[in-house]
Design a protein that fits this description.
single chain; 7 strands; 6 helices; 190 residues; alpha/beta
Amino acid sequence: MPAKYFEIRWHSRAGQGAKSAAQLVAEAVLEGGKYAQAFPEYGAERSGAPMRAFNRISEGRIRVHHSVENPDVVVVIDDTLLSPGIVAGLKEDGVLIVNTKHSIDFVRKKTNFNGRVCVINATDIALEEIKRGVPNTVMLGTLARVTGLIDLQVVEKKIREMFERKLPEEMIQANIKALKRGYEEVQCSG
């Protein structure tokens, strides 16, 4: 019997942190005793170019190594990428999570997706807390809340490990606050 995977496809622009977010998801899942993959897919490798990142999670070994075509969750970090194509292959019972100032109805109109939609104004939260418009930490908190796939405390620990040698403590705390706001402030349909 083939292994069952939980799959996430991230859509963003290069420089918005999708690759790092996917990596943190994989590390948090691994710490929980499951198997995980995280990998990016770039077009033209330049800041601002559309890119995708992927996660594949399983209770057992993962034996496939290709992009995620039928995700359980699609995470959109830049709402200028919204189109019907962004939800291609998204399972009917899947979830679309979008960083946007706009409403759930706006997202539905842009994507023609009638399943569960969750929105968070992650860029503004990142600007308020981290003083940078890189919303990936906020989106991790949102993903934790919406899916229950990753534990918020484990993600906090992973953020600390990732940044402890690179950033001062106040910046680490700002990222953790942004993570928690993503968890608390997401709004979902149905």
